[in-house]
Amino acid sequence: MSVDTATVRHIAKLARIAMSDADIDALVPELNNILGWVEQLAAVDTEGVEPLTAVIDQKLRLRDDIIDDGNIRDEVLANAPDAQHGFFAVPKVIE
Amino acid sequence: MVNDYRIQGDTGEWEVVIGLEVHAQVVSNAKLFSGAATAFGAEPNTQVSLVDAAMPGMLPVPNRECIRQAVRTGMAIDAKINRWSRFDRKNYFYADLPQGYQISQLYHPLVGEGAVTVLLDEKDEGSARTIGVERIHVEQDAGKLMHDQHPTMSYVDLNRSGVALMEIVSRPDMRSPGEAGAYLRKLRAILRYVGSCDGNMEEGSMRADVNVSVRRVGGPGEKEAELGTRTETKNVNSVRFVMAVIEHEARRQVELIEEGGAVAQETRLFDPDKGVTRTLRSKEDAHDYRYFPDPDLLPLELEDEFLAACRASLPELPDAKRKRYEGLGITAYNAAVLTADVESANYFDNLLDGLQRPEFAPDAANWVISELFGMLNRTGRDISKSPISVRQAAELLSLIADGTISKTIAKQVSELMLDENSGHFGDDPTRIVETRGLKQTSDTGQIDARIDEILAANTDKVAQYKAGKEALFGFFVGQTMKAMAGKANPAVLNERLRAKLAA
Amino acid sequence: MSDLTSKAIADLRSGFRSGDFSAREVATAYNAAVAAGRALNAFTVETPEIALAAADAADAARTSDDLKPLSGIPLGIKDLFATEGVDTTAGSNILKGFKPPYESTVSGKLKAAGAGMLGKLNMDEFAMGSSNETSAFGPVISPWKRRDGGNAALTPGGSSGGSASAVAAGLAAGATGTDTGGSIRQPAAFAGICGIKPTYGRCSRWGIVSFASSLDQAGPMAKTVRDCAILLEVMAGFDKKDSTSLDLPVPQWESGLSSDLKGQRVGIPREYRIEGVPVEIDALWDKGVEWLRDAGAEPVEISLPHTVHALPTYYIIAPAEASSNLARYDGIRYGLRELGDGGLDGLYASTRAAGFGAEVKRRVMIGTYVLSAGFYDAYFTKAQKVRTLIKRDFTQAFDRCDFILTPTAPSAAFALGDKSSDPIAMYLNDVFAVPASLAGLPAMSVPGGLDAHRLPLGLHLIGRELDEQGVLNAALAIEERAGFTHRAEKWW
Question: Residue A65: which H helix or E strand, with range?
Fold first, then answer.
């Protein structure tokens, strides 16, 4: 599988990274180079092999249903590029 | 009852195929993956932890209660509980989604297939239909955007961000707005019985994505591959609106197809003011969610003890309760009404406990439905705020059962208890009966005296009765009861009257 | 290097405790070294006052007989660890100015143990890189120079390049690193120091900026094996805030140190003899086998047949996870914001275009692609299956041996700019390091010797799950026999 300009542009859109045509053109061969390299995995026989789900075999722990966090609005908003009236502000979204 | 909902098109009859994805907010103190509170209506961004705000390096730790509630819900619809499940990330960008992904379950949901049985007609067991539930998975809610606070900016409140939701996905088993409505009401009832969701649609605790497609009657079979192209109308927040969406979408799709067009697979929004749906986004710019297992979380494995405790904690569910009520001699309709919501069912169960007269259950049911519910409806009250407590209702019904007051008097007493201006608002029935002297009397001397007066004043009717017009008996009963201000024991009155008329 | 800044942590600890010098003297010496070492570009933020405050607290604790395990020890903290109130950028423009209102679990444990923080250490952007050249703060320079008459600036390796350079040049007594696919071990090897990546789950990931969650693991970098044991004991431990944290007691690795390897078998994986690796690296490997034999271990040949697929597997899984982990850098709640065309999507795209460097973009693009509709199974699921096979290789190998010896990297440090135009050539640096990362196993680099250009070379030890002790002990045996006391000549 290899990617073309349109695919790279689509991926850039999915990843929300603005790219010029020149950026895209430069990335096409780079990505194809990497994809071509990783595709050697296709040759590995994985018949009947389960995908790895946990690096170290252990069970998911569950937390008790206790409120022990929150009420830290100032901390939550402290690093915001634009915080107004206790909210994060973003350019108007039309739904 | 069969699926007789049809759209009459210009070219023939059409059937509508409906599936619902219900998002139900899990009842829990804290969020699904953080210790921040879930309560409704807090100041913006106060119920937000660093995890909910997706600060760098923050990690999710799942809340046991949310898992427990989803498992219990699954058990309540006889669903397969998956002992091994896991969380996946659903990746997309939006201002209300701080992580840039929603933690959800795509590949291995917590709950597998189950079913919900609905009655299309509450009086008719034959109208039962089973709606398949494909799965229930647990996921995070998103935050909230406010668009009306600033001319050029939207404001982001993350209080809801990370609150646990159950997504309950039905099979495309519904064929009419009525069925969809019945399914939604029944599902809501079950969730409220189980206590896993408060079912409050106004506050957004429960909302539905409505999948609708149409196909010609007599068309291909019911396999999913043979369904028409469907649209998904997002976030519909009342039963009535869900039904309106279906009616509108079905008609719109039929017209579109008959005009030679094709239904686009797309996401739509419902406009409740206009009663129409409109395009939100089409498939061309549909998201590619890039689901993959969340590497911050391990697979969720449930132990036997956990599952056993979940099962043991389940209450009696609506269908079982309805059958039990019917077994007590309560009519099918009354049993259905009483069990439709957990609060009325609890009220009635407590009433039966207080009354300790199972044989009186059908009368109690009648009283609750026609008297209590009727009056609550008229005064716009909820059963949880009934001015007649369970204890008082049991007391009142006991007064009827032991012959202290008649049903007619009982009605008067309840009205007094429910009327804020009666001077007896919220009073115990015994006290009202005593202070107002409403006790029923079996004093034959008093009753005989009234009967004599009535018969003397209506000699013509007595003659007609004796000539064979026996229907007049009721007239004499009514007149005597009226003269007794309703307080005569009806059985005694009947017996004395019959004796007098026969004399 | 002053006398104090050349000491190992164990020696600083005993000297301070016995009253040879005060913690303030140590901190002052290191602060001066940091200031004098700016040519190395090892630090993104210097925090001399924090180091001094910890030193004063240590001196007070000594007086009141209230010493903590790391009282009086000044450390550098990789900029991937959130440090409360101190800029934490992960080497990226997109986190410029970000001051976390929280402290990562690991750096918090070090502080609670009395360690001082000298500053935040430069690194490859979001830990994506093997040469430190992807940092938004510019590359870290290695203190080492080739003895070839030239004066080329060399890489300290990456991504924990600032950590490696700082420790090697005596700008910090020890440092935290993180290792996703070799980011502790390869720079440790390049800089002639020790570094251990413990078993996945030993160190909490809470508060460490995520790169690839299923691989990321923190660990110490220091001059000696013993120093690594001392630091790791403090850094490791269960954390209920990290779902993948191991709920196990922390072993006493330092007191468990022993270079007597009698009865142990060291596995030599035949697949790690690869073409194009300099002869002197293979020669050092052979020497390492002899050192371990001398310590009592019996060498056995083992096979890790899926080794050859480890790097491609890694370069699917790590970018996939990263593409999702980095979605939160969107210009809304913290960090850089570029408004773009005015809309929300414009804000996202412009912010991320301006905030991420080329390598991060490349990996986010690869990760997005391999997860996208239609490609997920072919790439991601396939890679996770191969990962199962790689892990199985190790499990089977450990039936035949107790630990594994390999070279750490296929070359010594290279010059800045040498590989930056060829991503795959750069990725190949981690060919020996990545398999252990994919399997979540403890692994360590220890200096073995110098190459022909007098540049350090490292030996790499891989242990069983949770057997950090075995890895440390084997490394200690090598350390004792290699006699590696070389230090870079000061030019900065």
Answer: none
Single out the residue of A81, C364, C78 nearest to residue B57, CA to CA.
Answer: C78
List the domain boundaries for chain C.
1-248+256-492
Write the Ramachandran bin of C265: left for phi over 0, alpha for psi from -120 to 50, otherwise beta: beta
Q: Which residue has the tokens 């009234």?
A: B450
3 state DSSP class of C489: coil
Strand, coil or helix: B97? coil
Q: Is B100 close to C328, i.e. CB distance below 8 A?
A: yes
CA distances from C36 to B251, B449, C27, C491 (A): 78, 120, 14, 11
Return the SS3 of A70: coil
Residue C87 has pLDDT above 70, yes or no: yes
* Chain C: touching chains (3 or more CB pairs < 8 Å): A, B
DSSP secondary structure letter of residue C147: S
State the Cα–Cα distance between residues B69 and B75, nearest whole angstrom: 10
- The answer to whether residues B326 and B332 touch, using CB atoms and an 8 Å cutoff, is yes
Specify the number of domains making up chain A. 1
Q: Does A66 touch chain C (CB under 8 A)?
A: no
B336 and chain A in contact, CB less than 8 A: no
CA nearest to C128, candidates C192, C15, C222, C215: C215
Q: How far is B53 from chain C (nearest CA, A)?
A: 8
Give the bridge partners for C302, in sequence order.
C269
pLDDT in tens, A27-84: 999 999 999 999 999 999 999 999 998 999 888 999 999 999 999 999 999 999 999 9
Q: Determine the CATH number of domain B444-502.
A: 1.10.10.410
Chain B residues closer than 8 Å to C241 by CB: 59, 61
Instruction: Name C310's Cβ contacts closer than 8 Å, sequence gap at least 6.
Output: C390, C431, C434, C435, C438
Ramachandran angles phi, psi of B437, nearest 5°: 60, 45
Q: What type of residue is B287?
A: H
CA distance C355 to C348: 10
At B458 the pLDDT is 92
Q: Which residues have C-beta within 8 Å of that of residue B500, sequence separation ≥ 6?
A: B448, B451, B452, B455
What's the DSSP call for residue A63? B
- Whose tokens are 């995520």? That residue is C210
What distance in Å separates the CA atoms of residue B131 and residue B117, rounded to the nearest whole number?
6
How many other CB atoms are there within 10 angstroms of residue A64's CB atom? 11
Percent with pLDDT over 90 in chain C: 95
Q: pLDDT band at residue B203, thresholds of 50, 70 and 90?
A: confident
pLDDT at C416 over 60: yes
Name the residue of chain B whose CA is nearest to A63's CA: B63
Q: What pLDDT shows up at residue B95? A: 95
Q: Where are the domains of chain B?
A: 7-309, 316-435, 444-502
Pairing of strands B292-293, B88-91: antiparallel
What are C460's two structure tokens? Answer: 């790499």
Lowest average pLDDT, out of A2-16, B374-388, C171-185, C475-489, goes to: B374-388
Two structure tokens written together for B188: 């809501």
Topology annotation, domain C1-248+256-492: Amidase signature (AS) enzymes (3.90.1300)
Task: For residue A11, give its domain range.
Answer: 5-43
Backbone angles phi, psi at C235, to 5 degrees: -75, -30
Distances from the Cα of C177 to the Cα of B16, C51, C69, C107, C216, angstroms: 60, 18, 19, 11, 10
Going by pLDDT thresholds of 50, 70 and 90, the confidence category of residue B423 is: confident
Residue whose pair of structure tokens reads 């290279």 in the numeric block: C414
Distance CA C367, CA C215 (A): 15
Position A55 in a domain? no
Query: What pLDDT score was predicted for residue B218?
Result: 72
Residues of C serving a catalytic function are 78, 159, 183
Strand partners, B30: B37
A25 falls within a domain:
yes
Closest residue by Cα to residue C33 from C161, C166, C162: C166
